[in-house]
Amino acid sequence: MNAKKILSNPALKTTKEIQLDEEWNNFMKRIGEVSNLVKGLASGDKAKADAATVLADKYLEGKVITDEDIEMTLKDNRTVINQKAFQGLDTNNAMGKEAWMAEVSKDAEKRAEDRKIRREKMDTMKTQAMKAFRRGDYDRALSCYNRAIEFIRDNHMLYCDRALTNIKLRNYQKVLDDCDWALRLNEKSFKARLYKAKAYKELEEVDKFDECKKEVEEMFPQHHELITYFLSKEENYEDNED
């Protein structure tokens, strides 16, 4: 048995060294996932780049995304990858294990803080949007919801709220778009399915309306009266009701 094998014997390592090796090995298993994220973020395909942005935010929050086929066509890419954190991926392993992990941890903390700030800004715009909607200023409400979604793009309720605002403005195609985004983020969203059915009704697309109406009624039988009322209600641009 040569010296290298003897020194690599786990029995001769300290507890700290063993823990560090375990952490390092587990971390390196995720390098492939990180690499795919970076490729997606750098992709010339905007849909792929935006999808990678959402996935990166979820990944750093410790959340799991099971829908690998999600496609996001968002306005801009706010994800900034710390290039310094990837300098240790060369074959010479220039950065030590502890330095590498510390750099990545620092980058993750920075991204988490950035997301916290964006969420606070989103809450502010959402509050302004709700106030504008209640007073019947739907154009203002729409503008505020647009800003809110720019800050946080993976909140299905924001898309639902903007969809309802677009119903008031009779922007029915945009209603469908928002409902589709909301359902990608939460396929069980009652509001998204209800507003989607409403949009098809107003667009006089009978077959699609019947299909959506059937789906929402079967999924949410407890809301039968509300569904019937909402889908039969005549919308008025000047209507100040919620």
Short summary:
The protein has helices at 3-7, 15-29, 31-41, 46-60, 97-134, 138-151, 156-168, 172-185, 190-202, 206-219, 224-232.
Described by the principal axes of the CA atoms, the overall outline is elongated
Percent range of helical residues: 55-70%
Rg over alpha carbons: 24 Å
Q: End-to-end span in angstroms?
A: 79 Å
Unreliable parts: 3-7, 63-81, 238-242
Largest sheet: none
Sheet-strand content, in percent, reads under 5%
Structural class by sheet pairing and helices: mainly alpha
Write up what this structure looks like.
It contains 11 helices and no strands. It is mainly α. Helix 9 packs antiparallel against helix 10 (206-219).
List keywords for this structure.
mainly alpha, elongated, disordered C terminus
Reconstruct the topology from this structure.
Layout (H helix, E strand, L loop, with lengths): L2 H5 L7 H15 L1 H11 L4 H15 L36 H38 L3 H14 L4 H13 L3 H14 L4 H13 L3 H14 L4 H9 L10
